[in-house]
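Extended Data, panel c. Modelled sequence:
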Amino acid sequence: MSNIVVGIDFSKSSIKAFEYALGVASRTGLDIKLVYVSKKRDVDKVLPEGSKNKPTSVEKGFEKLIKKYESTIPGKITFRILTGKIYEEITNLAKYTESWLIVAGAHGMSGFEELWVGNNASKIITYANKPVITVKINYKIKANPIEKIVIPIDSTFETIQKVPFTIELAKHFKSQINILSLYSSKLKNIEERVENNTREALSLVIKSGLRYINEKAVSDNITRATIEYAEKRNADLISIMTEQEFSSQPVIMGSYAQQMINQSPIPVLTTKTRMVIHRESILE
């Protein structure tokens, strides 16, 4: 790992994401790469908010931002101005610079408007091959931003894939891991899968030496159940996969990941789902 990539359009939402990334960088020692993406090749594009609300160029905007925050982390803060589709440029930069993490505002303005409207909100997460943390504009960042992490565990085989990176992140903050066993059905085989996955997740967490607790929730709306639990336990981060078990209720907002990012007031860590061979397939 070498850096944290943060998408910046100088909106309040993207600045919030940058401030959150600073907290992660201060613990990990990683550099931060800020990236602005323009549809046109125009590095002198005027921003809506500059110094004292006066227009400024993208380059000058970055210089001001770096000067303000560069002393707050052990690593370096650099910037890139790219041209193209926002989600493609951000995810490609993270891929080819061997980045550890992408941090983005959950809502944006100006340049990021295309990214965060409707179903396009999931594009950066869908295309990224790196974990992504999304942060809401009104989220209050703590001095220690990640004290408690909720890891929801369901009946899918992919649910365990998020645990190793979450543990790696948690070690930098000495976070407590809250394993939440999610039961969305009373079918025996579903319950057994949740229990088996929970045991596997707990085994990894115990091996890490981190503090942990394990609790369960029964609900046909696993998005709401996860958020309510995280708020009840004053969690600082929810760790999910790009794909997750669907509830029996009609899905209005799309996938579990999309709903979580849209609805959660708490930052969400999303890990890319890798293709796995289901155990049932082996037995057939």
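Residues 58 and 260 are 32 Å apart (CA to CA). This feature is highlighted in the accompanying rendering.
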